Amino acid sequence: MAVGARTLPSPRRARRGLGRHVYTLMILPAVVTILLIIAYPLVYTLWMAVHEYSMGAAGPPPFIGLANYRQLLANQRFLEAIPRTFLFTAIGVLGPTVLGTVAALVFARPFPGRGLLRTVFSLPMMATPVSVALIWQMMFHPQLGILNYLLSLVGIGPQPWIFSRTSALPSLALVETWQWTPFVMLIVLGGLAALPTEPYEAARIDGASRWQVIRYVTIPLVWPYIMVAIILRAIDALKTFDIIYVMTQGGPGTASETLNIFLYLQAFAFFNIGFASAVVVVYFLILMVMSVGLMITRQKTSWQ
Amino acid sequence: MAVTARRLGSRVAFAGFLFLLMAPTLFFFYWMISLSLKTDVDNLANPPVLIPHSLTLKNYVYVFQSSPLPRFAVNSIVVGVGSTALALLLGVPAGYGIARSRRYGLALLILVARITPALSYLIPWFLLFQQLGLSNTYYALIISHLIIGLPLVMWIMMGFFEGVHPDLEDAALIDGCSRFGSFLRVALPLTRPGIVVSGILAFIFSWNNLIFAVVLAGPRLQTLPVAVFNVMSFEQINWGPLAAAALLITAPVLLLTLLVQRHIVASLAAGGLKG
């Protein structure tokens, strides 16, 4: 990809003015901005997490050391939110990855109307999440929803979807899958377009069936792209907020309360700022460890 | 003869498979449009009315009459355009600088921004904006939405500028052009598609964002998603107007997607989409 990745040489006549420092000056404003809006909050969060910080309290917040973290480790809601978040993430990664890869294989074949259908297929990931959640909520309605009606047509009884403790989380993960399958499809499709043709010719000469070609040639070749999709999907699924917040707000009870929803409620419904900051730190660490872990896995597996 | 029959069979199977693949997406959007155009009676009928016999625009009229939708739309546009303009202004030169000076360590910063959950910025920002007297202003919203747009623009533009061969710029430099001049006159025009795509994507993700405005915007500055979300609780089962509102706020995004769809794949291949 890096056709032009080498640096510009310095022709003698261009050696006037600022020279290569121009690049630094061009980068600086953006980097300072990002540092201000990212690094500052992170540092401030670390500080708040060791103080008893709540909204509206007079005077400087007292230093309480690791008390917020200790409280966190004893918090039942928090401890339950962690495996719940991972379950949601697992479905939200697996579903789109499998379906998205299948879709990419389909859209890699030429057929009439392919461009238009591919665009329509990619609309769910671009649509406004609030709108998506709103319509799914109507479709999930136990009595009047279209989904239970469609199920009844094929002889399946009504489901409680997002309205029962056991099915709320999987139902939300279903919406997540619907929304983000195109994301995986687009990444894998990009990979398929960049594949070399020689292995295919070799496979054809060897008389491989279409399924064998997919299984033993295509999938291994696009695996690095699938891994990229898995990494990005895992990061995003761990952070899913909008659809859960709009459809269930973590309910019924706490049945769909993921870490992000738990964090939101602590910070902006109960205003336990210090405690919420400790949640942020732990949540951030989980995300970092998982991202780095996945990236190392990718380094090891990519290009065999 | 047998060969053509088999080929026909495999084509039919492929078409059927394609239909299965498309069905959830097609049905969702069909149902959204259908809910917004049906009467209350049809929307609440059991069994549901799949193909309505009469259509009405009453739901759309109701949405405009019952809520100051245009005002919320202005909020969304101001915040979206403002944050996108800033993201391009800062992010395009930065993407160029990183690509040309090969300081890829800085890309790590973008990655961290991509990984960090939005909520973890929100608590400190919320407090800071309050102390600065900026809470409930466009500034607070635009700055917060910059966290979505800026890393996105930098990342995409980095990829596009890498694709511009340095030889093209060498020629400009030898002709006496300054480095910044060669950025303006050579690299920038060549990467116009990248600027358009990253700008539109930054705008879309700003437009779609719910959480920043939920926390940082008061009633007057609500963006469209917040406004619709707030109406939800009052309009429990009033599906027609809700579906109409849902369609109205997402329609601009879907139209923009149709405009840039050709370039989305290229940008995606270059890295991470979504804020």
How would you portray this structure in words?
The complex is a heterodimer of chains A (304) and B (275). Chain A is mainly α. Chain A has a single domain, classed as MetI-like (MetI-like fold). Chain A has twelve helices and no strands. Chain A has helices at residues 21-49, 67-73, 76-107, 114-126, 129-139, 146-153, 168-193, 198-205, 210-238, 242-247, 259-269, 273-301. Chain A is globular and about 80 Å long. Chain B is built from 13 helices and no strands. Chain B starts with a helix and ends in a 6-residue tail after the last helix. The chains are: A mainly alpha (304), B mainly alpha (275). At the A-B interface, helix 1, helix 3, helix 4, helix 5 and helix 7 of A face helix 1, helix 4, helix 5, helix 6 and helix 7 of B.
What's the layout of helices and strands?
The complex is a heterodimer of chains A (304) and B (275).
Chain A: H1 21-49, H2 67-73, H3 76-107, H4 114-126, H5 129-139, H6 146-153, H7 168-193, H8 198-205, H9 210-238, H10 242-247, H11 259-269, H12 273-301
Helix pairs in contact in A: 1-12, 2-12, 3-7, 3-9, 4-7, 7-9, 9-12, 11-12
Chain B: H1 2-37, H2 40-43, H3 58-66, H4 69-101, H5 105-115, H6 118-131, H7 138-162, H8 166-174, H9 179-190, H10 192-208, H11 211-216, H12 224-232, H13 239-269
Helix pairs in contact in B: 1-13, 3-13, 4-7, 4-10, 5-7, 7-10, 8-9, 10-13, 12-13
